[in-house]
Amino acid sequence: MDAEVVLQEEDMEGSWTLLSLFSSFLMVFGGALPYIPQYQEIQRSSNTEGFSTRVCLVLLIANILRIFFWIGKQFELTLLLQSVVMILTMLAMLHLCCTVHSTNRVSTKQHRLTAKISGRNQAWFILGSSLQIHEAVLQALE
C-alpha cells in the first residue's frame, strides 16, 4: 500500500510540474502573441495606421525597468524571460514600423519628383529626346 501511495504522489508531482511548465510558457510568450497578427497585417498592407509606437515605448521602458529591478532583487525567472521576449517583440514592431514609414516616404518623394517633371518641366521632355537633356533636368530638380 505504501508503494501505491508513493507512486500516486509522484504522479501528482509530475502533473503539477507539467502544469507549472505550461503556465510559465504561456506567461513568457502570452504577452507577445497578440502582436503576431498585427505584425502580419502591417507587413501585408504596408500601413501602420492604428498602431501606436508610443505604446511600444511605454512597454520597452516598463520591461527594461523590470530587468533592472531583477538585477537588484531577483524574482521569478519566468517574469524575467517575459520581459526579454516583450523587448524583442517591441523592437521587431518598431523596426517594421520604421521600415514601412521609410518605404512610404521614399515612394512619396518619387511621386513628388514625377509630379515636378511632368508639371513644370514637361516641355523639356517633349521637345528634347536626348539623354543629356533628361539628365540636366533631373540634376536641376535635385
UniProtKB/TrEMBL annotation:
<feature type="transmembrane region" description="Helical">
    <location>
        <begin position="51"/>
        <end position="71"/>
    </location>
</feature>
<protein>
    <recommendedName>
        <fullName>PQ-loop repeat-containing protein 1</fullName>
    </recommendedName>
</protein>
<keyword id="KW-1133">Transmembrane helix</keyword>
<dbReference type="Pfam" id="PF04193">
    <property type="entry name" value="PQ-loop"/>
</dbReference>
<feature type="transmembrane region" description="Helical">
    <location>
        <begin position="16"/>
        <end position="39"/>
    </location>
</feature>
<feature type="transmembrane region" description="Helical">
    <location>
        <begin position="77"/>
        <end position="100"/>
    </location>
</feature>
<keyword id="KW-0812">Transmembrane</keyword>
<keyword id="KW-0472">Membrane</keyword>
<dbReference type="InterPro" id="IPR052241">
    <property type="entry name" value="SLC66/Scramblase_ANY1"/>
</dbReference>
<dbReference type="InterPro" id="IPR006603">
    <property type="entry name" value="PQ-loop_rpt"/>
</dbReference>
